[in-house]
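pinning this so it doesn't scroll away 📌
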Amino acid sequence: MQNFVLHFKRIFYNLGFFARTLKGIISFIRNYKATYKILVMQILFTFVYALGITTLLALAIGAAVNVIGGPFLTGINQSQLMYSLLIIIITREFGPLLTAFIVIARSATAIATEIAGMVVSHEVEAYISVGVDPIEHIAVPRFLGVTISLVLLNLYFSIFGLAGSYLIAQFFYSTPMDYYFNSILSHLHIRDVLLSIIKSIAFGTIISIGAVINGFSVERASTEVPVAGLKAVSSSFAYCIIVNVLLSVLFYIILV
C-alpha cells in the first residue's frame, strides 16, 4: 500500500514538473538568446547525430517488410495490401517507437547524467543563487530539443523506410517508381500521419521530462549519477511502450 501511495505521488510530481516546464516555455521564448545554444546543441545531438542509425534501421525495416510480406500477399492475390502494410508498420507503428528507442538510448542517458552531474557539482545551486531558473535554463531547451528532434526523426524514418521498401520492390519485382509511390500516397491518410506525429510528441515528452526529473533527483553522491541515467532509460522504455499501446488502441477504436 505504501509503495502504491509513493508511486501515485510520483506521478503527480511528474505531472506538476511537466506543467512547470510548459510554463517555462514562455520565458524561454522571451529570453531565448540565453539558452538558444542549448536548444540547438540538443537538436544537433538528438536529431542530426542519430541520422545514420535511423537511416540504417529504416531501410532494413522497409526492406524486411517487402521481402517477407511481398511473396505471401502475392501468393494469395492480395499484393495491393502491401502498401497498407507498409504504412501501418513503418509510418504508424514502428517509425515512432523505434525512433523513440534510438533517442532513449542516446539522449535520455546523456541528459540524465549531465544534469545529475550539475546537481552533484552544485552548478544548479549556482544558477539559483544568481537568479536563473534551472527549469527555464536546463529543462525547457532539452524538452523542446528532444521533442522536435523526435518528430523530425520519425518523419525521416518513414521516408527512408518507404524508400528502402521501393528499392527491394524494384530489385525483385521491377515495380515502376511512379506506380509504387502513387500507390503509397493513395493508401496514406492524414490520420496515419497525425497519429505518428502525436506519438512522437508524446514519446519526446516522456523521454525528456523523465530524463530531466531523474537528473534533478540525485542528492550529493557522485555514485548516483549513473543510476539516474539507468532510471531514465528504464522508465522511458516502459512508459513509451505503454503510451504506444494506448494511442494505437484509441486510434483503432475512434478512427478506424
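📌 and the second one:
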Amino acid sequence: MKTPPQSSPAISRRRFCRTALAAAGVAPFIGPSRLFGADAPSNRVRVGHIGCGRIATGHDMPGVAGSGLADVVAVCDLDSHRLAGGKATIERLYRDRSGPKPAIDLYGDYREMLARGDIDAVTVSTPDHWHAQLALAALYAGKDVYLQKPMTMTHAEGVLLREAVAATGRILQVGSQQRSWGPNEQFRKAVECVRSGRVGRLLRVEIGLPIDPTKPDDPEQPVPANLDYNTWLGPTPEAYYTEQRVHPQDGVRSRPGWLRHDGYCLGMITGWGAHHFDIAHWGMNLELGGPTKVEGRGEFPANKIWNVHGAYHVELTYPGDVHMTVSDKLPNGIKFIGDEGWIFCTRESESAATSSDPAVAKTSLKPLDASDTRLLNPKGLTVGFPHSTSHHRNWLECVRSRQAPLSPAPIAHRANTACIISWIAMKLGRPLQWDVKSETFVNDPEANGMLSREERHGFGATSLAKVHGA
C-alpha cells in the first residue's frame, strides 16, 4: 500500500485492516452467536486463561479483568501451584474492582477447557514453544484468541496460524501492546508523524534491544510433583529437568529460565524484537511486507541451558532502499531517520523493563523525541490511527464487533518473521536474501531448513494442523 498523499484524510485503522486482511485472503470474522441479538449489549465475553505465570498474572489477567467487557470463568496451567495462583489473582482482580467473585474452573489440560462451549475466547500466556499449538487448538475449537508475543516460535508455525485465522474467521490479537500503549500513546504518535512525512524520505531505522545474561548449567533435579514436565516440553526434544530450564518454584513473578534457552525462546531478538519490529514496520508502511536482505552476527554461549544470544548486530534492507540496524548497543526503542530529521519512540523509563524482560540501558532520549520538536506537532498530520490504551480491551471490543484488532495475524506474522530471519542470519553469520512473496531464502537450503523445526511425537502445531486437514 502507498502512503496517502498530503491531501488524503486520516485513514481508519479498522478500514485499513479490513482492506489489508481482505487482500491477504482473510475470511470474514465469525463471532459467537451468544454475543449478538437484541440483548447483545448485556452479554459479556467469557474468557479462559491458558498459562498462569508472570506475564499472565502481571499483564494478561489484569488486562482482561480490568476491561469491563469480560468474565473470566476458567484458568489452565501445567503447574498446579501456578494454577492456584492464577485463580487467586483473578479473584483478587475482581474483588479490587468491586465486582462479583467469579466462579473459576481449574484445568491442567487445555483440551478440556477448549471443549467447553460456553467459553468464547482464551488468552495464551505460555512459553514461546507452545504458542502455535495452543492458538491453533483454540481456533479449531471456535475460540477467539489473545496470544502473547512473539506470535510463534518458528516461521512455519506463523504461516500455519495465519492461514488458520483466515480459514476459521476467528479474532486473533497478538500481544504487541505498544500499539495500545498508554497513557501517552507515543508509539502511535511517532508512527503517525513518520507516515505523514515529517522526517522526509525515510532512509534508516534503528532498533535497540536488551540482551539476556547466561550462567553455567545446573545439574538435573527431581521433577516437582506439581508440574507436568513431559507436557511442558511439548514439541521440543526430551531434556532433563532442572528449575533453571523451566520456571522458579518459589513464586510466579521471578524471571523464568525458558526465556534464555533457544529451544523454548530465541532470545531478545524475538522477545523485545516482536514489539519493536512491529512498530518499525508500522512506521515504514510495510506491515504486510518485510526485508529483502539480512546480515547479522551474534554471540551464542556454549552453555546448553541458558544459550540464547548475547551481544548482536543485524543489518536489514527493505524495499525503497531503507536500511535497518538492530543492535544491543543502540538505545532501547525505535528511531526513524529521514533526510529531514529523525523521530524516536520508546517506553517510559519506569516501564521500559517488564516482568518478562531484564533491565535495559538508560538513554537521555525522551519516550517520544525528535531532532526538532516541531516534527511532533499533531497539527497537519495526514495519517492517523484509532486511539487505544488497552490492548486487551481492543481485543475484546473486536470479539464483540468482529472488526480486525490492532495486531492481527497477518501483520504480527510479518513482524515476527523479520525477527526470526534476523536470528537465522545471526546463527549463520553470512548475508541472506529473503523473498518476501514466497517467504523463503533465495537459493539457500540451509537457511530455509531453519524456518521450521522437528516436533516431538504427539506434540506440535504442524501435527495438529495435519489432523485438521491444513
